[in-house]
Structures
1.
Amino acid sequence: MKWLLKAFKKLSLILVLFGLVAFTGCEGTESREQVDDTVEELSGKKNIEHNTRSLI
């Protein structure tokens, strides 16, 4: 019975750690969106999309 408790403790710790990694790795953050916007602006993608929309 002790081995079951030890296994459960280790499993719960692993699940918590994976949960924290998944939570901190989300790409829906505002800073990520700002970086994406800046990269699109510097690469000219926003200008191309704007010109394409105005032609349609």
Note: The chain has one domain: 2-55.
2.
Amino acid sequence: MIRGKRLTALGTAICLLALTGCESKIKPSPSTGGENRETVSVTPTPTQEPDPAEEIVRDLKDLHVIIADWWTEEGWNTAESAYDEAYLDEQKSAMQKYHYTLERLKAGDYRDSWPEEIITSALDDRAKASILAVEPKWIPKLVEAGAILDISRAETVNWNEDKYNQGVLNAMSLNGNTYGFTDEIHPCGGVFINKTLLERAGIDPSELDNLQQSGQWDFAKFEELCERFTVDTDGDGITDVYGVSGPADEFLRSLIIANDSDLVVLENGGLKLNTDDEKLLKALEFGSDIMLSGYYAKPDDADGFSVFADGKALMLFTTDDALETINRLKKEYGLDVYYMAAPKGPDADGYITLCRENVYVVLDCAAIRNRLDDILFAYDIYAQPATTMNGVDLTQKLKKQNEALLSEVSDARSYRTVMSMLETYKKYMPASEIWVPGLKTEALGKIADGKSPKEVLEAASAGWQALVDAGNAKLR
């Protein structure tokens, strides 16, 4: 689930089945598509048309592509800026050139019964919403039922392009098949830093930026910062300000991922419990050392924000959506924060951006299956940002949806850092959150209570292994 997009009403509103009827002839719509989309920098499409004598133009034969979700509202393809107009013009030109139309629509309010409705509509050949947004946790049920297609079969899309979230594609690939994709990126986790505490200590935040940009923001520098800011301000023998806080399990999981590991990984086409990985153990031992050194303060609220929100910790670790966390800390607690990547682990090649996304899948019914290449060819064009506006190269331009978020963030630098992460850092979506959704990480929090990492892993491994085995059994 992507926070902020999920609707809480679970009514039956517009049933998914009412959208559709999988027909061999898909009628075109007067809609000419387009959306104010959130994107990252991609390789621009050439702005000059190739010589018609040399180009073979793909004819989609009046294909009508429907992308369905639970959040799109009317007016999704209305231009509200010069950029939108440029994007829509390029989309319209493509539709005319390749003979297709595309629209987004809201299939209904979010509800837990969607997986069953999707399965029914696909298996009964009644789904004309060719591309559908789903929550990652629904994927195993859809795969097991044979309701979605392997998108790697498509020969019209280069899934290695930067515009597609490679972390999602990797997590969605199992047993030689790839079941979902997205061109959206929402960073989660990272480090949120109290700017006021930095300034009081006489630290120019640009120093931290320089560390990150030079690749020197690592576990060692993080520990130095923790030590420096863990202080007894009034001399009573009790620590008043700590280096770091946040939910214990999320802090430790962040360190694991930052050291290029995780509790469950994809290996040899299946799922593998990874608790014997040296990189994972090294990250947990580092986190344990931070805690035992007294640099970490355990929060006492459900969200894990309490210590940081009270100004008693320099840094906050959470795996929540990054942009929403920045805004929430400002709106609810009046805190201006700097946002940085989680420090680079000693075994990682670079910084790693944790992301959690809604995933797009292609339903498996006859008319859709037979036109998979054409449907994804059309989506590939839809996912491409506008390349020029009034002769200006737009491939680096922040798009409207992101600029709206920027207006809510008092510190524009934090926002730009987030976008920089999206463009340059490795994207990672945990496979366990798709294929083993029942696996919980709260057991890691016992390390904050003094348990050793090895003790915690040994105690939790049997239960985790049973969940992984069950996940593998369903997908054989």
Note: The CA atoms of residues 27 and 64 lie 6 Å apart.
3.
Amino acid sequence: MTSSDKGRSPKESLEQSLKEMKMMREGKMKKATWEEFRSSSRNDN
């Protein structure tokens, strides 16, 4: 969950996640590696 997900309903969050997944598969959005995700989540705290 990103900071932009706060205040969203579960339905809205799921819809956004599916849009992002589609964009990643089409190559329009960069996929984050596990290490990148872990690093960014540690920096959020």
Note: Residues 3-44 form one domain.
4.
Amino acid sequence: MRTLLALALILTALPSFASVNEGYRVGRWEVSLNPGVAIPLGATSDEMSNSGVVQLVAGYQFNEYLNFGAELGWQFNHRWGGQTAGQFAQDFDKDGIDDRAPFSSNIHEKILGLSPAVKLGQWVDVLSYKFRPYLTMSAGFYHAWTNSGTTVVQGNDQISGKLVGPIITTYDTSSNSYFGFSGGGGLDILVDENAAVGFDLRYSRITKPYEDLEFLTPSLRISYLF
């Protein structure tokens, strides 16, 4: 009961313009800007840092539940570094086992994604406010760039405990295209007939020849509906 009362007080404190009678409209467009952070998962987290990300999403409301369109995403600053794994895996001490040693670099990877996207959700009324929980899926084209630079492997191998390095490797600038997909969900809150805010959380996977890249991306969501 206390939880419900607290929720009611919070909603009451929202600006009065949030209480509107507008929900979905069939034939309506929606454009969203989603700033957030791309967090590497699994083996990807061993090789690169978090990066800021900005997504631009546009979709058309076909019916009460289905919104279909496209999204453009830009991960702009993954710095290479962490533990030697995936593309950086090597047997430095020649014992027949790939080592896991610390490495750093001055190389950054940038990733641009472009794909069609499906969004499934329905506006619901709660205490005179409109909310839309939703699921989203996309699959398409990803392009990755890296600048030229060096990696430096130096430290104790986590497997054997032996000291490795320093081993310096030079990389040229690279630019390659891949297939990828993402899926997740979020929540929209209508604050005006033509505006909504909310949050989005999704998992994405980019297929590369040597290994797949995996990310978890939480972001804010600012939408214009027209």
Note: The longest strand covers residues 174-192.
